[in-house]
Amino acid sequence: MRITNLEPQTNNPDRFNLYVDGHFLLGVNAAIVLQMGLHVEQELSPEQLEQLRDEEAEQQAVDRALNYLSYRPRSREEVRRYLRRKETPSDIIEAALARLDRLDFVNDRAFTAFWIENREQFNPRGSHAIKNELRMKGVDRSVVDELVDDEQDEQLALRAGRKKALSLMNLPHIDYLTFRNRLGSFLQRRGFGYAVSTRTVKALWKELKEEEQDDE
Q1: What is the sign, positive or negative, of the torsion defined by CA atoms of 92, 96, 69, 7?
Q2: Which residues pair with 43 in a beta bridge?
Q3: DSSP state, 160?
Q4: Is the pLDDT of residue 214 over 70?
């Protein structure tokens, strides 16, 4: 088998069309062309052809994963599941993940830190809920338990509950029992424990009632 042509693809200059014995064989990433030293008139052994196909399949998996990661950071398991949905063979998935690991594009500790910070800033939740979310994304339990801080639940519950509490206080004739039941349920649905939710309800009721009195 002899390479008879290597031409850049019209719509993607980072890829080449490879022709063998006058016939199109496959598209190849430019990095693989350089890595394997491919050139016109080169003879390809069956072993080299198999290596070429494996390298191209791995590069395609890496490119797909990088595109998936471009929207937001992902856990290692999220990337694996995504490539499985694309019907990527298991050995190619693991090879692609190993390369992404070396390049630090996949890092479950960094992903966990991102997820915690994102939740704290935009959608505060209790540590229990955050831990469940991370485990569902395939992050190892030891990483989750190390990085998710239960001690911040009180502060996060106050932040998560304040807007809801304000809306409840605007209801006509709101009483403490209704306030407690609605706000308590709201907080528990966001992963805050019963004790934290109870203390938060009391603190926000007291705070908002005092503000009402100051405005009178």
Answers
A1: negative
A2: 2
A3: H
A4: no
Q: Which of 147, 148, 65 is nearest to 101 (CA)?
A: 65
Kindly tell me the number of DSSP H helices and DSSP E strands found in the chain.
10, 3
pLDDT, one tens digit per residue, over 50-105 is 999 999 999 999 999 999 999 999 999 999 999 999 999 999 999 999 999 999 99
Take residue 193 and report the two structure tokens written for it: 């424990």
Question: Coil, strand or helix: which one is 193?
Answer: coil
The fraction of the chain above a pLDDT of 90, given in percent, is 65
Query: Residue 156 is encoded by which pair of tokens?
Result: 């996060």
Q: Which residue has the tokens 């908002």?
A: 208
Q: How far apart are CA 215 and CA 209, in angstroms?
A: 10
Task: Label the pairing between strands 15-20 and 3-8.
Answer: antiparallel
Instruction: List the Cα angle 125/129/134 in 5-degree steps.
Output: 110
